[in-house]
Amino acid sequence: MTSNLTDFSIDSIQKEIDQISLDQVSSIETVSTDQFLQKINDIISNKLPMGSLADRVRKEYLSWGPLEEILDDESVTEIIICGKSHIAVERKGTLNYLDDSFLSESTYSLFIRRLCHEAGVELSYVMPFIHGRWRDFRLQITSQPVTETPVLNLRRVRIQKWSLLDLESKEMLNACQRKTLEIAVKDMKNILVVGNTGSGKTTILNALLGETGKAQRTIIIEDTNELILPNNISTKMLTRFDPQNKVPLIDQSLLVQQALRMRPDRIVVGEVRGAEAKDLILALSTGHGGGLGTLHAENPNQALLRLEMLVSLGAPQWQTNTIRQMIRFGLDIIITTKRYATGQRKVDGIFKITSLEEFGLVVDQIA
Q: Which domain holds residue 343?
C-alpha cells in the first residue's frame, strides 16, 4: 500500500482535517462528530478522484485502515501493531507481517483514539497502558512515555461452548484424559489449568464448566469477560480498574471474598495472577470443592512454585511450609496445556498432587 501512495501526499488532506479539530473524534456519538466525519469524507472526495485510492484513504479516516480486511477473518488469532508502519498478524500460531500500514502518524493516532473510545478505556500520559475488550478481541495498548510510539495487541477471544467430547473430536485431548476430567469435575475436585499464552487454557476451562451440574451455583470471577456461565443460577463478577482513580478499585481478591458470601457450590477464577491466590486457596483448603481456575506456567512444578509466590503476595506473613500445606489441601488436579509450532493446542498432561515432602509438593501424572 505504501508504494501506491508515493504519487501523492496526504499532507494536504491532513491539514484541512486538522483545521476541523481532531478533538471532536472523542465524542463520536454526538451530532457534531457525525458532521466531522462527513467533512472528512468531503475533503477526501475533493482531494482525490474516485477509485481504490480514495476508498483506501476513506478507510483510514472513517474505518479501520489496514485492519479493515482482517478484523473479521476468523483465521486471525492475534494482531500486533508497533507504530504506524509495522503490523503483524498471527494465523495458526505463526506471525507474519501485514503488507499494509497506516498512512501517517496522524491517522494512526486517530485509530488509537477511536479504538479506545469504543473500548471504553482512556489512554494518557499519566496512564500510558490500558487493557480491555473491543469487539471479540482482548485489547492491550502501551504508549508514551513507556514506549516510543503506541504499541497495540489485539488477541481474538472465541467464546464458544465446546464440551470435553467436542475437544476430544478436535484432538485437543484423548479419551483417557476426557474421562479423567469428567470424573474429576463430578467428584468436585479443585482443578487448575496451566499453560502459556494461547495454549487453550480458557477453552479447557469453559469445557470443564460445561460438565458442572445444572443445579450447582457457580460464581465466576474474571478480569475480562471470557467464560460462559453454566446455568441460570450461576453468577459472574468482573473486576474494575479506573486509571483516573475516580472510583474504587475492585480486584479479584475482593471478589473472591464476596463470592464466599453468595452460597457458591463452585468458585471459578478466570486467571489467578495476584494476591487473590491467597483468598482462593484459603477457601479451597477449608472445604470449598469444585473450584476451577487458570494460571500461566509451563508445567505442574512451575505452576505450584508460581502459586506459592502469588499466595505469599496476599499473605507475606505465612511460612513457606504453611502455604504448601494449604495448596496440598486445596488443590487436587493440575491440567497442563501446550500450543505447538503448528498452531495445534493440546492437553499435555493431567497431574495429581500426591504428597508434601521436605523439598516441596509432589505430583504424579494420571492421564
A: 164-365
